[in-house]
Amino acid sequence: MTSTLLMNVDLWPGEGPSIQKAVSILITNGRVAEIGPAAKLVAPQNATIVDCEGVTAIPGLSDVHVHLTTNSDMSRIVDNATYRAMVPGTEKLLHGVRNGLRALAAGFTTLRIMGHRDSGDIELRNCIDRGLLPGPRLSVAPWVISMTGGRGDLFYPAAWARQPLDTADGVDECRLVVRAHRKLGADFIKFTASAGTQSAGDKVHWPNYTLEEMKVIVSEAHDYDMKVAAHAHSTEGIRRVLAAGIDTVEHGSFMDDGCIETMLKQDTILVPTLSISDFVIHNSERSGARPEGITKMKEVREVRRRNLKKAIKAGVKIAMGTDSSGNLCPFGNHARELELYVELGMSPLEALETATVRAAEALGREDVTGLLTKDAIADVVLLNSNPLEDIGVLRREGGIRAVYKDGIDVSNPWPAVF
Predict the structure, then answer these.
(1) Do 260 and 167 belong to one domain?
(2) What is the pTM of this model?
(3) Domain presence at residue 107
(4) Mean pLDDT across the chain, nearest whole number?
(5) For 257-279, what is the mean pLDDT?
(6) Where does the record place the Amidohydrolase-related domain (predicted)?
(7) Which helix (H) or strand (E) holds 114?
(8) Residue 86 burial by CB count (10 A; 0-12/13-18/19+): exposed, middle or buried?
């Protein structure tokens, strides 16, 4: 039995405005065994004792929209289409290992992966779960379901040979590809319901897929207890996915008042992903984005921010996702998304909850992540100031004292990657 006592720490449990002052957290075999007053909770014999005076403990955070197996080498920028089409899957997997460690050191112990075909996302998840490699807890969709000429298809050059099921058209093919994803070990399903900002040759307001096709994707996934995420920028695309019973709307740029009303009525979760446009616009072509993509992001940015403000004010459920994608939006910078939410009207508390309890709801893993309470899995981030008052502490140099996943200190799992 291995035990660690985090002694004399202030605790924010992952929801609500209250912080428990001067408590100790006893971690045993990867779980929170006890939380109690620092003066009364005694460490077991041979336990590791960590003095946390002046430190605030929060749960390990979750980013529910990332592309893990993307370029991790910021000294060698590669445009998205070239990377996807030309880099071998084994190399993509190794980039994914590095990206995961960066997320872990930044306090993000759980990631929801929008996977790339033949890049090893599923295999990496399995190795981490078995303790063979360090890394965040992963929830994976093996690749995106896209119609021919849709956003996913248009990431690749037109002349690039497609594999079977790279695209799915019509109700029968959509049903088949969901079943193929499930066979591969998918945790959830992702499909494209609209054009995108980084895909080539489309316009963001275009929808993808008919309502009938979307309904079969959603119903087939739900039959096997898998949640469904839909890439949806356009108003019509958002309307269709809501009518299909989607679980999470990814991006949601052009949602109108009707979409917001439906999301509230249906309890649909929005994943805004502001970080990627924030990074690309600030870094322009240095990010590896192509001119067409930069232009589309600039066109969408203010509309997206304005509509997200409306959604926040209306009370739409929001889960934090960055769209971290290699050099387009580097891993390790995830908490920038929380700062952007605060800029648009959330309190630091509300922003943090998007990465704890709301993210856990989006993942469907409330039993695994989101709260730091007795009997919870011991994913803990120790911060040098109170994030309810100082949301910037998560990104400030020296702001994070330590990160624990499953009760193990993973603060610096592989120094060479940083």
Answers:
(1) yes
(2) 0.95
(3) yes
(4) 93
(5) 96
(6) 57-407
(7) strand 108-114
(8) exposed
